[in-house]
Amino acid sequence: MKPAQGILRREAPQVLARRLGINFSDNRLLYRALTHRSYLNEHPEALEDNERLEFLGDAVLDFLVGAWLYNHFPEMTEGELTRLRSALVRTEQLADFAREIDLGELMLLGKGELEAGGDQRPALLCATFEALIGALYLDSGIGKVKMFVEPMLEAATDQILTARKEQDPKSVLQEWIQSQGFGPPVYRTTGAIGPDHAKIFEVEVVVNENVYGRGQGHSKQSAAKAAARAALQALGLN
Question: In what order do the strands lie in the sheet with 200-207?
Answer without folding.
Answer: 186-193, 200-207, 210-217
